[in-house]
């Protein structure tokens, strides 16, 4: 392994984490990191500050990809959700909770509201604590302009967050009660855990059976979950509670062990605010072999 290869591998987890937060997609983030390596490998001289150089390159690549991706998302079938991430490649023991919150589905959807430049500046500065000089070099703007972009991004992010966010212990305890109630089919118990305006959002991208209608409100959501989940179990579907995008969630598999969907709970103010399901097979392939959702749906319907 050459010195340049070793230096790149040292920073690869950081580059993947930056690119994923800007793009909201694992495959796109991996492609951006690969393009960053090709540019680094082709550079005539070794940069004096490899971390700043590589972060700048991956940011510029990700911004370009994001601008084209937004055009595609305008024609996306149904609700769009980020690709689920089961483990953040970048770890910082001193900032574990902050990094987990910044990669949550809720945070990534708030980032979607920002312009590509605002999003990049926010990720570099607020999430990964890059200095304004480094941020300016990455996005090609002055430091003063980056300060303004960061301030605007922080304001938008604050406005979209719940007033009373749950801490990690509270989220895990409430999620455990949620899955216990789901497993036991306790509709009343489940209903007490749901916010008054709780919703279920499913991203199938037009490639899987969709929810028949928008499901909102604790009564309707509890009724849906306690009606469908037992039939899924009878059809051989299993689920493994585990963090998804740093938040309580689960991975569902068909009877052969193939990935069917992921579920993530958005918990705040003492209740489940949103239940997000990613079913689009294109967004699940990085997790392993993907189940045929249409075939599984037919099996669930037969499992009365």
Automatic annotation (TrEMBL):
Q: Which residues form the RNA polymerase sigma factor 70 region 4 type domain?
A: 106-157
SUPFAM superfamilies, per database record: NTF2-like (SSF54427), Sigma2 domain of RNA polymerase sigma factors (SSF88946), Sigma3 and sigma4 domains of RNA polymerase sigma factors (SSF88659)
Entry annotated with the keyword Hydrolase:
no
Keywords for this protein = Sigma factor, Transcription, Transcription regulation
Q: Which InterPro entries match?
A: ECF_Sigma-70_Domain, NTF2-like_dom_sf, RNA_pol_sigma-70_dom, RNA_pol_sigma-70_ECF, RNA_pol_sigma70_r2, RNA_pol_sigma70_r4_t2, RNA_pol_sigma_r2, RNA_pol_sigma_r3/r4-like
Tell me which residues make up the RNA polymerase sigma-70 region domain. Answer: 8-70
Where is the signal peptide, in residue numbers? none
Instruction: State the superkingdom.
Output: Bacteria
Q: Which residues, by range, are in coiled-coil regions?
A: none
What the record says about family reads: Belongs to the sigma-70 factor family. ECF subfamily.
Relate the assembly described in the record: Interacts transiently with the RNA polymerase catalytic core formed by RpoA, RpoB, RpoC and RpoZ (2 alpha, 1 beta, 1 beta' and 1 omega subunit) to form the RNA polymerase holoenzyme that can initiate transcription.
From the Swiss-Prot or TrEMBL record, give the protein name: RNA polymerase sigma-70 factor
Q: What is the lineage of its organism?
A: Bacteria, Bacillati, Actinomycetota, Actinomycetes, Kitasatosporales
